[in-house]
Amino acid sequence: MKERARSAQDKAQRSEDLLRAAEALATELGGVRFITVQAVTERAGLHRTGVRRYYSSREELLLELAERGWGQWRAAIAEAVAQRAGLGPEDVAGVVTDTITGLPVFCDLLTHVTLTLEGDVDMERARRYKAASFAAHDAIVDTLGLVSSMTPDQLRGLLAATLALASTGWQVSHPTPTLAALYEQVPEWGHVAFDFAPRLKLLLTALAVGLHAVIPDTGPAPRAN
């Protein structure tokens, strides 16, 4: 059992330990829905009440993990396109798909953020999450806009679809143990548990091509005087 953190650096490390423990458990257990505060603190080597010094609730801990996921996605996209230019809509869809599916816990959390996490923390914590997620979203649009033929409006539409499809698709393709057992008993129902990454890439490619075709490029916005 780790001793109580004394310095700011120690506290930051304990906070990071809790986030890593939560992410590891989500991966091992098949989703964040199965995570408990006790399991996270035990995995991090802290006393079961220790989490309260860093996060006021399970929801705040998971919202922090989701906020970090936004930063990881933004960084992954920047790295993926760092040496590229002239990307078409199909290429952009591929980058977006590959980077977000490389963050499975983030995909899972997107559902829980909307359903519970944002609403179950205090307003200031929700405000910080919103500010960080919007900043990451806008940075992704800017990054992809510099290397592709897609306009900001087209990219915003693609990202909106990505968030919706990734969150829902992850849940459908990772059924609970009860549903997995049911699909074994009734195989014709199991087709809904599709292969997540290939299906997402197919849908996002179609959307990117369609958005590129139907949303006009209106040129740069007029500059303010």
Automatic annotation (TrEMBL):
Segment forming the signal sequence: none
Coiled coil start-end: none
Keyword terms, alphabetized: DNA-binding
Keyword Transferase: no
InterPro entries to which the protein is assigned, alphabetical: Homeodomain-like_sf (IPR009057), HTH_TetR (IPR001647), TetR_C_34 (IPR041483)
Domain HTH tetR-type span(s) in chain numbering: 12-73
Pfam families reported in the protein's UniProt record: TetR_C_34
MF (Gene Ontology): DNA binding
DNA-binding region extent: 36-55
Name this protein carries in UniProt: Transcriptional regulator
Annotated organism of origin: Streptomyces humidus
Lineage, opening ranks: Bacteria, Bacillati, Actinomycetota, Actinomycetes, Kitasatosporales
